[in-house]
Amino acid sequence: MSIPDARPERPPAQPYATVDAEIWPEGSLEVLSQFEVEQLRSSGAGGLYPLLRRCMLAVLNSGSDTDDAQTVLDRYRDFDVSFLQQDRGLKLSVTGAPAHAFVDGRMIRGIRELLFSVVRDIVFTRNEILDDVRFDLDTVDGTTNAVFHQVRNGRLLSLPASVNLVVCWGGHAISREEYDYTKLVGYELGLRGLNVCTGCGPGAMKGPMKGATIGHAKQRIRDGRYIGITEPGIIAAESPNPIVNALVIMPDMEKRLEAFVRLAHGIVVFPGGVGTAEEILYLLGVLLHPDNRNMPLPMIMTGPASAEAYFRQIDEFVGATLGEEARSRYRIIIDDPIGVARRMNESLAEVRQFREKHGDAYYFNWRLRIDRDFQQPFKATHASMETLNLREDQPVHELAANLRRVFSGIVSGNVREDTAAAIEQGGPFVINGSERVMRLLDGLLSAFVADRRMKIASTDYTPCYRIK
Questions:
Q1: What is the pTM of this model?
Q2: Please, what CATH class does the domain formed by 18-132 belong to?
């Protein structure tokens, strides 16, 4: 006699609920010309519709349970956007939109604001940055100038400015314990009147904002800033959370990272994975440049007691590859949200004094030296990944730049559908370098995989790379 399967039979998959709606602009959206509207509608050469559709779907899909961009696009394959040009201005018509972006048939206001930020930034990037001869994106100064105009257009430069903006980095695929800890730190930052900027997605990007809203509410701070900075390549995998009240979509990852460090007065790093490691290496590489040696930019790595091993792995990797000077640029504080907020608040006084002494702006760090190696967009391909210089015989800030590119390529392989398709066709990326650096890199990446820090559903994670 056979024994029946005790597991309940799984019901057939249900279609995802969708809504059709017409939406008036909310928040910041400039009046668009007929030419700009046609750009948004067009799918052909020079048309912006495919990019716009992707980014708008990501915003509407806030709270998604997946970080697989292709899965999101497949779920809502019938999602469509059209534009209604009326005397009162531009109106959007969406069909097949995720139902969880609506309450009783009306779009959540925060999501509606972010939706029109997408339109604003995509049009601005194409017409005012990429197609404008004023911005030479092949030069350091031209790129920084473009970053400044992008964040200014997104209304991130509030005046009169104060030294109170803390950028929070960390993973979207973190445990509940780690997420709750990010909320506690955000709460303590909010109680001290500090504002928060993150990558705008879930996990360690949402938690600090959520905590800060409570801290601000208790202090009766009604103009708290919850800034989100993202880019088209990852937005579908890290959908913006609706706590964000100022969203900017930068053209690429490198300009996104530059916007973070130019706007930041201090940086808090929570547990994460390869994306967080990329951000850490970017910042350390910038700070290790001789011109930035004396510039204060406080950086604190923190997490609950269970995350201590994660930060020990990062610290050991940084010390072994970039040296003691790199380690001196950050502090590690474990399981102490109050201590993190106090330390950051005290450090911001040093930042304020430095900028006053040198006549620097509070709202944008023009003085920070960022080399071209950290600005040049890196496209992860089999050739570009295998030919990275990952040897010790180069200046330490250049090694940091190339290590950053390794992690950037792995992030791309994990979350971008076009990179994933290339890997499926050509096999995993091959990463090559000196024996010592490869051993250190393999150890760190293996730990990320073992700790399930690569993707939200990482129990069956297959690496998109191979250490040679």
A1: 0.89
A2: alpha beta
